[in-house]
Amino acid sequence: MAEGPTLSDFMRHLQAVLEESTDITDAEEQEQRQWQIEAAIQEAIIFGNRYRELQEHGLDPLRLIKPKTGDPIVPPVNKIESLQSGVMHCEGCGAHLDADLTFCPACGQKK
After folding, report:
1. CA of 75: how far to CAs of 64, 78, 82, 83, 89, in Å?
2. What residues contact 55, with CB distance under 8 A and at least 6 apart?
3. Alpha-carbon span 68 to 74, nearest angstrom
4. Phi, psi torsion values for 65, nearest 5 degrees
5. Lowest-pLDDT range, 4-8, 28-32, 68-72?
6. pTM across the whole model
7. pLDDT per residue over 53-90, tens digit each?
8. What is the C-alpha to C-alpha distance for residues 21 and 3, in angstroms, rounded to an integer?
9. Alpha carbon of 30 to those of 1, 7, 20, 37, 50: distances in Å?
10. Rounded to 5°, angle at Cα 74 from 71 and 75
11. Cα–Cα dist 30/18, whole Å
12. With 70 as the cut, is the pLDDT of residue 50 above it?
């Protein structure tokens, strides 16, 4: 099985995108994009350093943290709940409301 891109590949990609961002004509948009890319580069550096540090101490950097005894266990969200998360309901009839509508398509009540 072939491995995907490395952290170094990702950082080189970010450097290239940072260079390309100088072509953005709007100064405010250019500055915002450069801040985003520079923040991503910094996070990649921090991740790489932390990963190496944990490995040097014989720890698995990617191990999952197990919950402590007594911590409440959150039940997994099923597919329907995940699709409905953030969905609004009509106060009149309970039907699902689309974010772009100002009224309920089922009963006509206004939001």
Report:
1. 18, 9, 12, 16, 23
2. 61
3. 13
4. -85, 125
5. 68-72
6. 0.54
7. 888 888 888 776 776 787 777 666 565 655 555 556 77
8. 29
9. 39, 25, 10, 11, 30
10. 140
11. 10
12. yes
